[in-house]
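User: Hey, my collaborator sent me this sequence without any context and asked if I could get a structure. I don't really work with proteins. Can you help?
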Amino acid sequence: KDAQWASKGDASYDEVKKLASQPTGEVTIIDVREPDEVAAGMIPSAVNVPLTKFEDAFNKSGGANFQQQYSFPRPGFDDKVIFYCRSGKRSAQAQDIAKKNGWQNTRNYTGSWLDWVSKEE
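Assistant: No problem. I've predicted the 3D structure and written it out in structure-token form, which is a compact way to encode the shape of the chain:
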């Protein structure tokens, strides 16, 4: 458990870029946009759990069908997770839901997809 990690605050483009290009499995990057938005592209190595499904996916007792539904294992309560969306608002909501339900090792990529695309071009 890395208590320092979550206290670093919001995730930056440089940090997310490094994690996306060299995934170690230590950090899960979750895109909380809707599937039609994700179809236009997403950060490499990221996985998708739409915010509209988030309350069910990240509730304390749930998760029984998580892997079947989202094609990746639900992160454990101590696992490191970075959330992003289009502009950082929905990912902040997702982070709040996750924290409320026991995931403390979470951070928000506040620039999100708009920041990523502007820096990748």
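In plain terms: The chain is about 40% helix and 10% strand. You can pass these tokens on to your collaborator as they are.
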